[in-house]
Amino acid sequence: MKTFKTVVFIGLFLISGFAGATALSSYTFKDKAEEQEFRELTAKIRCLVCQNQSLADSDAELANDLRREVYTLWNEQKSEDEIVDFLVSRYGDFVLYDPPFKPSTYILWFGPFILLVIGAYVLSRALKTKAEDEEAELTEEEQQRLKSLLDDNNDNQEPTR
Amino acid sequence: MIPEIGHFALVLAMCLAIAQAIFPLIGTLNNTPSWAGLARPLAWGQAFFLTIAFAALTYAFQVDDFSVRYVASNSNTLLPNIYKISAVWGAHEGSLLLWAFFLGIWGAAIAILSKSLTQEVVSRVLAVMGMINTGFLAFMLFTSNPFERLFQIPAEGRDLNPLLQDIGLALHPPTLYLGYVGFSVAFGFAIAALIGGRLDASWARWSRPWTTAAWVWLTLGITIGSWWAYYELGWGGWWFWDPVENASFMPWIAGTALMHSLAVTEKRGAFRSWTLMLAILAFSLCLLGTFLVRSGVLTSVHAFASDPARGIFILIFLLVVIGGSLALYAWRAPTIFSGGRFNLVSRESFLLGNNLLLTVFCFLVLFGTLAPLVYDALEWGKISVGFPWFNKMFLMVTPFLAVLIGFGPLMRWKQTDPAWLMKKLRVAMIISVIIGLIAFIPSISKGSLLVPLGMFLMAWIITSHITAIIDRLKHKQGISHLFADMAGKGRSYYGMMLAHMGVAMFILGAAMVSHHGVEQDLRMSPGESAEIGAYRFRFDGVIGAPGPNYTANQGKFTIFLDDAQVAVLEPQKRTYLAQGRPMTEAAIDWGFTRDLYVSLGEPLGGGDWSMRLYYKPFVRWIWIGGLAMALGGIICISDRRYRTKKQKSPQLAQTDAANTLATENS
Amino acid sequence: MSDTKPTPNRTRYLIPLFVFLIMAGFLLKGLFMDPRHIPSVLINKPAPEFNLPTLYNPEKLISKADMKGKVWMLNVWASWCVACRAEHQVLNTIADMGIVDIVGLDYKDEPADGKRWLQQLGNPYKEVLVDKSGRTGIDLGVYGVPESFLIDGEGVIRHKFTGPLYYPDIKDVLIPKLNEIKGMAK
């Protein structure tokens, strides 16, 4: 089983070396802008066979089929949401390259902001403490330094030119 | 016979590793100098046996010894000789051997180059490396033996994966692994400090060049990996936020933070807990990466074949090393006081901000990489976290970092007058803003905010650093003394400059290629042309082109710019003979301002082919930036102060200087 | 100076260890999960509508409605699929045992190849449908071959096998699931 999985895995990996016959090349669009939009849409969808490639890049058989479906829906003037819905209702959230925005994934979307805020808070706390310590200690330290400087001066008279 | 020698060498190396892990460490704790003194000889011994093992496997590949399972799985009689060498580390078992081999090499390097360190520190660092090597060797010997034999010897090997038959494989894993292993040295220093309970400026001074060296290798490894993926995979992409890529990027981020934190610890004695934590974090992420790649826990186009049994072994290893070090940190770090007061506006505070931003970013990447696993484990559904999410996070954090970089060189330690700072940087700021505004022109910005932002940041880094150099030279002896300053004591300053410029170069490349790149997926007939950006690509048909171990269809493209011929590209579609595996070999006309890239697809009948054509402006600057960063690091390491002889204590050194001065002047 | 301050809060330093242990827990769980496995989102949802020709009689169309009334298994296979070969013996056994009707879906295949394949390996199917374009496969959320679905009398998908069926699955999964479905129907 392990060897089989390895073989399948490598095989799938290598299928990505193919450029599929039904790549974007065979789809026609009204204009460049529309083609770009289509490409951006397919870039947001995950290829389920070569799982770390988007539908735009992957050349797997299933990717070809799914692109064809998306193209058909696209030509039927379906909105992006409807197309995405079509895929998600069949394959689940996994088919989206970005995690969907729902309660279970709030943490993924808000998490970074929260982390940045925590980071900023830590930073400001650390800087404030350092500055406070600085002010409290400085006079004492200054006095110490002054004293030792005076002592040094008396002890180590460096010859001057 | 040779494979058995290699196998035996591994066993001996492991015995030595165990000894190296135990005796020197106990020797330093018990104050038994003879035991502590074993560290260096044991490190030499390990390096010796690991070299033998590595040589044995290389030999097996060279002579096509298919009785060794690993060779049979990854090689072939028709495989060109140079790839027989790189095939040694082309798959799981061999790459582990590479890890262990490099651990041996770095250990030997420490044994040689540690004259200025105390025996205590050397013994502890080498002991830690011994522990790590024990883990890797045990992993190999018990679960992934590269010298395992086949009793039915196949007549022919299965061949190396065609994608790996490339110079990229020769360079990428070795540089990357040198980086990973290098961070084990920084890790060793941290553990040594925690055990000894002492962390002073000399510790930071010792640890800095080693850490920077590791970082340099890792930077090179990632840069080469990105470049390799770009031309090898045929999609023109240079970074995919693939889990395995993230596994190499996270240690790099932590390592960058560590390098900067070490600077503060060396110069000002501050950030000690931070530095220790980052050293542990960086190496832990290296180990975590090893786990992720080999355990099958995450999907990746990049991972080695997976096996839960191996995964469990590595996980236990992680628990021991990372868990142990974090426990040691929790126990000992509170007793290590951090000195050094500093003002709100000072180099320290900005570097603290730098530390925090990098750490946050590192955790974000970790978060995103592991999220699918976490969601699946908690049965919250199967989600994917892909390129778009990571990109957004990257763009949220890095602009702030880029801004901080600009301030860095001019800031003074402990206290910098904000008014003075702003006055100095006023010109740089104005120029940068102007450039940013110019970049708003639609033909430059292509409708995206990111291009002006990128241009602003790039200009900011460059102008602020030039300002800093001018300011520095004014205080030295004038601008004409630039080269003298560079060659002399100021070397690490210029290393920093170059590395930061590397960041600016990277921003240029990434911003431009992401928004100005043109990609077309086409079906073309021979003689047909296509417009890609300002260029015209003419398809001139396909001919056959056999190779040493493959047959190929080779396409010809002539590219014109305004009717002047600019390039001829010959991409190939190869079929490797051993396994009939297909592969695309893209053709690239590279340049400093743009790459022209063609990738051949499938024959569609009637001489027509499908293909992908790309115009990639400034893409090379991404990797030039990476190289600049690495070179900057190398320049920093070459600074003379790291090559002093055995350190006396600082007071003694000062008295020496005073005495010399006294005698000179009397 | 700082010696007069009390030892900083020690628990703060335990946080990294704590976070790591939690992460290690997830990694451990992860070792026993398959990241490539995509669970079906159609469980307990109505099977998609289909109207497909059969392999041996292309004029005859079979739709979802034709299958109402009984619990049945839909097996997605293809003559170009290596794993399907091994699975086929298991399917033959299931057919011989008569525990459930199996309907085959020849996925993205040439009918001639499909027929030849069944001739070589046996035909456990009550009917064989042909999905040349793969559209029905997409509707079912098929992403690899073979896959099998258990569909109840109302046309609702109750279970999905991703990957080939093995002999132990008959006793361990198939029969209990069938009982469960029939029990729910009552």
Could you characterize what this model shows?
The complex is a heterotrimer of chains A (about 160), B (about 675) and C (about 190). In chain A, about 65% of the residues lie in helices and about 0% in strands. Chain A has about 160 residues and is mainly α. Chain A folds into 2 domains: about 1-100, Helicase, Ruva Protein, domain 3; about 105-160, no CATH class. Residues about 1-20 and about 155-160 of chain A have low confidence and may be disordered. Chain B is of the alpha+beta class. Chain B contains 21 helices and 10 strands. Chain B has helices at about 1-30, 35, 40-60, 70-75, 80-85, 90-115, 120-145, 165-195, 200-230, 245-270, 270-295, 310-330, 345-375, 385-405, 420-440, 440-445, 450-475, 480-485, 490-515, 620-635, 650-665, and strands at about 520-525, 530, 535-545, 550-560, 565-570, 570-575, 580-585, 585-590, 595-605, 610-615. In chain B, strands 2, 3, 4, 5, 6 and 7 form a 6-stranded antiparallel sheet that branches. In chain B, strand 4 and strand 5 (about 565-570) form a beta hairpin. The longest helix of chain B has about 30 residues, at about 200-230. Chain C is an alpha/beta fold and about 190 residues long. The radius of gyration of chain C is 24 Å and the shape is elongated. In chain C, strand 4, helix 3 and strand 5 form a beta-alpha-beta unit. Chains A and B meet through helix 1 and helix 5 of A and helix 13, helix 14, strand 1, strand 7 and strand 9 of B.
